[in-house]
Amino acid sequence: MAKLREKPFLTPNDKGLVGTDDAVSIQNAIDAAHANGINKVVIPRYNKRTDTALWSIGATIRIPADMMLVLDSCRLELAEGFTGRMFSNSLSDAEEGKLIAGEQINIRILGKGEAVLAGNGEMIYLHNVRNFTVDGLRVEDSAGNAICLMYCAYGKVSNIEFAGDCTAADQNGIVIRCACHDVTVENITGVVGNHVVSVIVEASEALEVPAHVMGVVVDTRNLIIKNIKATCSGSLVKLFNQDARMLYNVLIEAIEDTSPDYAENRPFSAVMIGDTDAKAN
Question: Contact at 8 Å (CB) between 164 and 190?
Answer without folding.
Answer: yes
